[in-house]
Amino acid sequence: MNSTAAETEVLASRAWVDRRTVFVELTDGRQLGFPADRFERLANATNEQLQKVTLRLNGAALRWEELDEDITVKGVVAGRFQLPLPVAA
Length: 89
Prior knowledge:
Order of helices and strands: HEEEHHEEEH
Mean pLDDT: 91
Low-confidence stretches: none
Oligomer: single chain
CATH superfamily: Uncharacterised protein PF10387, DUF2442
Number of domains: 1
CATH architecture: 2-Layer Sandwich
Number of strands: 6
């Protein structure tokens, strides 16, 4: 079975942050979230800085201009994060 790039491309239609969790709504209607602490620059960001997430590349990437951070939506969906989950004390 062949698939086209359009069928395999994962794109976001919107992104937002709530309580240091980054949420993404995909163009197919799925929603997912991940802790900001899974990425070094986001982990060190203020809540105000995190709120400034935008979509880039037609929804293929999340961008924080002030933090100079770009994260691919495809990577998030695949579970590719920079940092491990924090261990509960």
